[in-house]
């Protein structure tokens, strides 16, 4: 049979690639019956290749951006839930520290150090005299506590089977807003507070007295701040507090929620990765980490520390009034060079609140008899708080990568299959063709001879081994006639 007229593929590697490739359209380009068909297939292939490249580029760019998605898991609590901690703060700091000979400058400095909303203390002022024995006898923490605490006028905790009087179940804590008081603190026995169910008739009910005369409104604001948080977390009134003015009642319903970041690009701390030496019983948070760093600096530079939680974790003494100037220097560097990161997983509470007037009617009469104040003064100083559970469930939100490596490979495979009809084996074929061509032009002559020798040896060795196996298994068999095959022709004629 006479070969058809056309051009010939003289490159053995490329010829083998055209004959065996899994890429759709290649054979039509080089083996078409007419030039028009070959040109049309070449244009179709180029267009598909360009489209495939653009889509693949977009998929890779999307993967590099690392998009995220969130999913919500609802955890039911049919047998009730543990009640969280509730911290209450008087918006205004206590007027008279618990020492008798403190100057205005000393008090102003204390107010600046322990209230993050206060304007910066005048650093050009002459520092207080810290050499007196009187100042050395009074530690900072004791000086901050009021002589008498009338802030909590009444407290009750209601659950399904009873009511607990809880006026004496509050512990003083140091927060960015100064001294506050926490109910159900981690120092308190957790079993004293039973599980509760949802509903407004259960939960914590408070009547607070802000004592405006003893807590004057330096910045024109009065009232209290309420914070709902985990038992072993440091409350942050300035971040998560709800303000309640005097003469008002607030009903706060809460739903427990958990945020869990599982993305690859997260820059956060997992549970147990960072130890807080000065706050061992406190759950990790960025603020707790910063407080721990501050206490470390105080212990290192001032030879003292603040111990508002009563934890005996170090041998460092409590800071006294004589350490105020050193403390001011350390507080001025607070958070500037902090290495603290946010936690990857943390618990918080979604709050819903509503307001109403308080006190009125019989309640107003009963309070006036107890505190011996007129009704107008009561409305200027008293307020009511009710904290209760909205739903018996916890909503956990997971943040994860929505386009990871598996999704990328799936998109790439689908795109290349749609536009070019190829898979990963076809890509391997192209890579092998490129390597063969590189070997053809760059490989030295001796290297080619060695490769050819190896390639020629492999079939002979296999044939020799096959013959030996045949002789061993069938010694009486007669040799077959040798078949002389025609050598493979690398040149192929292509029709016009």
Automatic annotation (TrEMBL):
GO molecular-function terms, A-Z: ligand-gated sodium channel activity
In the bilayer, the protein is annotated as:
Multi-pass membrane protein
Q: Which Gene3D superfamilies match?
A: Acid-sensing ion channels like domains
Q: Does the keyword Nucleus apply?
A: no
Q: Keywords in alphabetical order, please.
A: Ion channel, Ion transport, Membrane, Sodium, Sodium channel, Sodium transport, Transmembrane, Transmembrane helix, Transport
Regions crossing the membrane: 39-57, 412-435
Give the species this sequence originates from. Amphimedon queenslandica (Sponge)
Similarity remark: Belongs to the amiloride-sensitive sodium channel (TC 1.A.6) family.
GO terms for CC?
plasma membrane
Q: Which gene encodes it?
A: 105313537
- Specify whether Membrane is a keyword of the entry: yes
Positions of region (Disordered):
473-496
| Protein name, entry field | Uncharacterized protein
Tree of life domain: Eukaryota
Q: Where in the cell is it found?
A: Membrane
Q: Which InterPro entries match?
A: ENaC
